Amino acid sequence: MEFRDYYKLLGVERTAGADQIKSAYRRLARKFHPDVSKVANAEARFKEVQEAYEVLKDPEKRAAYDQLGSDWKAGQQFRAPPDFGSGYEFDGAPPRSGRGRARAAPADGGASEEDYSEFFSSLFGRGTPFGAGGMPGGRDHHARIDIELEEAYSGTTRTLELQRPEVKPDGTVELRRHAVRVTIPAGVTQGQLIRLAGQGSPSHGKAPAGDLYLEANILPNRQYQLDGRDVTVTLAVAPWEAALGATITAPTLGGPVDMRIPPGSQAGQKLRLRGRGLPGNPAGDEYLQLKVVLPRADTPQAKALYEEMRDKLNFNPRAG
């Protein structure tokens, strides 16, 4: 995927104000509108201009886009940072977990859902905090919080520093930072929303303040693979443990447990520990995927044992 320089597409500086961006968009939209333009590839250029304007006219999207830095050049290969959008607090409806295409642009942009590029969708699609649709009033705010798998299992308390983009009178964007303390419950799952009542924008009149929703983002773990509330871990076993059976100590999120390996187990086989995944109702399970590890034949005794097995077992792993 190639990086898109939205400032270059609109022909404005990175310091341009909102009025300059709007003026540049309107000028280019008239120039490349496919109904009137005679320019080659006018429709494609028109869509690029729409996409650039969709980002740069929105204080939240623009502030996040600017944090990618100015070192990227249009056309360079690009991959969205895994933490893109984390730490931002923004207006709108609760975000949806999972991937998807970007939402349609407002009427002043004129773009439809299909007009956005892969680059746009990777940053601002449904799989990011910026992919949510707005709600009337916009009193609720939303942010993403990154947590470790162990924290999702046991629960934790965090003090977060969030940043909310605000438009200054001159049209530039300023990030206002503030701290919020949040309790993350045990058993929180990927994409789950944690609601902090009254922590959104204050309302007009006597109506209650909006809420702050934190979307849980569970970071990848070196040992465990997460699927919903279930976890999978690779468990190394010796050939004789797999062949003869054994009781070994297996890791779980709640601490080590004794696990019985049945005789005749094979590499890749999965054994289940019921209820040893993330807490919940019901709790998830842990799956132990067996990995048979062979000892090296690096001593005369070891070589002799392998030769004896070869001669006496009459075993062909490729038979059948």
Quick recap:
With 320 residues, this protein is α+β, with helices and mostly antiparallel strands.
What does this structure look like?
The protein is of the alpha+beta class. The protein starts with 5 loop residues before the first helix and ends in a 7-residue tail after the last helix. The chain has helices at residues 6-10, 18-32, 42-56, 59-66, 118-124, 149-154, 239-244, 300-313; strands spanning 90-91, 141-147, 156-167, 173-184, 193-196, 212-218, 224-227, 230-237, 246-250, 257-261, 270-273, 286-292. It folds into two domains: 6-218, HSP40/DNAj peptide-binding domain; 226-313, Urease metallochaperone UreE, N-terminal domain (HSP40/DNAj peptide-binding domain), CATH 2.60.260.20. Helix 2 packs antiparallel against helix 3. The longest helix is centred in the N-terminal third of the chain and has 15 residues, at 18-32. The protein has a four-stranded mixed beta sheet with strand order 1-2-6-5. The protein contains eight helices and twelve strands. The radius of gyration is 27 Å and the shape is elongated.
Series of H and E elements: HHHHEHEHEEEEEEHEEEEH
Query: In total, how many domains does the architecture comprise?
Result: 2
Q: Gyration radius, to the nearest Å?
A: 27 Å
As residue ranges, the low-confidence spans are 93-110, 132-138
Report the structural category.
alpha+beta
The number of strands is: 12
Largest sheet: 4 strands, mixed
- Output the number of helix runs: 8
**CATH 4th-level superfamily of the largest domain:** Urease metallochaperone UreE, N-terminal domain
Q: In CATH terms, what is the fold-level topology of the largest domain?
A: HSP40/DNAj peptide-binding domain
The outline comes out as elongated
Beta content comes to 15-25%
With strands numbered from the N-terminus, the spatial order across the biggest sheet is 1-2-6-5
Measure the end-to-end span: 44 Å
